[in-house]
Task: inverse folding
């Protein structure tokens, strides 16, 4: 077990993509990491009830299930199918005993931003009754604008807040990811606004490398890139998100690190976490 206080740290299983769900649970718990967010790819083919028992026995806090969304489509059939897939994700989330599902909302090429946005609103609204039945939170995650063409028309915090404001339900909120929103001005005020509206559901951390080799799978360990991580974290802490039980969720996609020892990768992550989040600012 690490001698570093990792109780407010969680790790997304996709960070250690080569590991099985059992390996992720065992390694994270052994390090004293506080929480885990489980990707659907990590539990495909697994007995979800057994995974849930393992998670409970480990002492880890289950933070979220990743991911649902991708609501947009050119035809009603495509959009209806997306809703069905999201209802299945909600059932899996409930089976795992996880309190929240992260939604990457989707974007269909050649559709206008308005069309995509309206389809996202319709999709989230369609799965909300099922979410209410299970008490599962729906966390809208805005993605960096470089993904706006085909992954998410929710490309900034204002977009995500617009979804929340249009639906106005306590189960609909926002997942803030440093990788996706670091470039926005006025973050401090937006975090305060989301917290006041009880829409701040999740906080994902990694770093943005301007010279990344791959737009999806070359995220940086904290400190490898250009994000002002300490300021970002200060503004997040000012909302009392962490004091109220929230986690800093490490979510790093890295083909480079996936090819290496995952224990060594986790060592690097823990050390970076210690330096950037646990040491006093200078």
Result:
């Amino acid at each position: 077990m690490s001698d570093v206080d990792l109780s407010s740290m969680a790790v997304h299983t996709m960070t250690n993509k080569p590991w099985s769900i059992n390996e992720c649970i065992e390694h994270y718990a052994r390090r004293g990491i506080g929480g885990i967010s489980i990707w659907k790819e990590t539990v495909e083919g697994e007995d979800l009830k057994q995974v849930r028992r393992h998670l409970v026995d480990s002492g880890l806090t289950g933070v979220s299930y990743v991911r649902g969304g991708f609501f947009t489509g050119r035809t009603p059939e495509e959009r209806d199918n997306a809703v069905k897939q999201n209802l299945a994700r909600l059932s899996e989330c409930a089976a795992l005993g996880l309190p929240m599902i992260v939604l990457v909302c989707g974007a269909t090429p050649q559709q206008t931003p308005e069309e995509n946005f309206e389809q996202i609103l319709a999709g989230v609204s369609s799965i909300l009754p099922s979410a209410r039945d299970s008490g599962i939170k729906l966390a809208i995650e805005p993605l960096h604008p470089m993904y706006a063409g085909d992954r998410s028309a929710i490309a900034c915090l204002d977009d995500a807040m617009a979804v929340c404001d249009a639906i106005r339900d306590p189960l609909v909120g926002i997942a803030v990811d440093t990788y996706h929103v670091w470039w926005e001005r006025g973050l401090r005020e937006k975090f305060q606004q989301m917290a006041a509206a009880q829409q701040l559901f999740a906080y994902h951390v990694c770093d943005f490398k301007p010279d990344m080799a791959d737009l999806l799978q070359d995220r940086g360990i904290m400190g490898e890139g250009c994000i002002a991580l300490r300021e970002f974290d200060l503004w997040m802490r000012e909302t009392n998100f962490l004091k109220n039980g929230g986690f800093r969720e490490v979510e790093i996609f890295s083909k480079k690190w996936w090819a290496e020892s995952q224990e060594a990768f986790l060592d690097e992550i823990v050390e970076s976490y210690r330096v950037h989040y646990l040491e006093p600012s200078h």
User: Anything to note?
Assistant: The first strand starts at residue 9 and ends at 12. Strands lie at 9-12, 35-39, 61-69, 100-104, 137-140, 172-177, 200-205, 248-250. The chain is about 45% helix and 15% strand.
